Amino acid sequence: MAARFVRRACSRLAAAVALAGGGAVAAGVVTSEDPAATLKICGIVPIRLARDSLTAASIVADYKYSLWGLEERSVEYARAKHEVHTRGANILQELCFRNGGIYIKLGQHMAQLEYVLPMEYVQTMRASMLKRCPVSSYDQVCEVFRKELGKSPEEVC
User: Fold this and answer.
1) Mean per-residue pLDDT over the chain, rounded
2) How far apart, in Å, are the Cα atoms of 17 and each of 22, 25, 87, 114, 120?
3) What residue ranges do the domains of the chain occupy?
4) Could you report how far apart the first and last alpha carbons of the chain are, in Å?
5) Which of 11, 55, 110, 146 is the most buried (most CB within 10 A)?
6) Which band of pLDDT confidence, cut at 50, 70 and 90, is reported for residue 92?
7) What are the boundaries of the signal sequence (predicted)?
8) What is the mean pLDDT of residues 92-103?
9) What CA–CA distance (Å, rounded) separates 37 from 151?
10) What number is the average pLDDT over the span 65-86?
11) Percentage of residues in the chain with pLDDT exceeding 70?
12) CA angle, corner 45, sides to 44 and 51, nearest 5?
């Protein structure tokens, strides 16, 4: 009886959230200056947010599981901590490349934070984010200029 009530309440909540979210997206698209870009953003943001959440959860779970039951000052703890740092850095690097854009910039920033982050994160980000970044073509750069400034790069200079 209680399980049916909970299931029904959850399904109603999911339907209400979907309806409200769909309405908000529709209102945003209709009232925006660039409906295509707004629709694209409304599609990308939830996907990126889901990836971020799953990545964070998997890294936290890896730390909890890998270090569980180990004595903090032991050699096994230090070795396990190094391994989990390396795995976490690789997972985070993959997230940055999959999400692209500002996430690449975040990875580049992380590569410079050796005074805050574990060295495994810094080294992983330095090896990838500073040397293997996606490259934009000249046409893409010109498109950004036209979109943001209303002029081509030649007209700005």
Assistant:
1) 87
2) 8, 12, 35, 42, 40
3) 1-31, 34-156
4) 72
5) 110
6) very high
7) 1-26
8) 92
9) 19
10) 95
11) 95
12) 90
